[in-house]
Amino acid sequence: MKIYFAASIRAGRDDWASYLEIVKQLREHGSVLTEHVGDVELSAVGEDIGDRKIHDRDLGWLKESDYLVAEVTTPSLGVGYEIGKATEWGKPVLCLYHPGEGRTLSAMISGCNGVILRQYQTTQELRKIFDEFFLVHQP
Hints:
Elements: E1 2-6, H1 16-26, E2 31-32, H2 51-64, E3 67-71, H3 77-88, E4 93-97, H4 107-110, E5 116-119, H5 126-136
Parallel strand pairs: 1-2, 1-3, 3-4, 4-5
């Protein structure tokens, strides 16, 4: 089972510790094609390999994945684009949102029928969320 994990990179890395824990937990369910998103060393500058290469590589990974799991707390144009493509391609999409002061979720995510949205307060809650999601959406 191949999982594409999407989260903010250039839009901000404030939640990188959550991303790292999410990747760790997702590994229990399959191969995470985008483990680098949880990398402590990855800054908001992103990778230095060129935008076209990142776009083409990431869309290739997304296309070959069985699932998209996206952390959408920090709004990101790239993550929104990936969610749009995954729903267009009929992939199961799980969006994770950590509500907090000054944070508002986009209506384009919360109102999308092709997305399963789950709120969480702590990363410990994610284990149950993942277990339920992957049980219901087995390939």
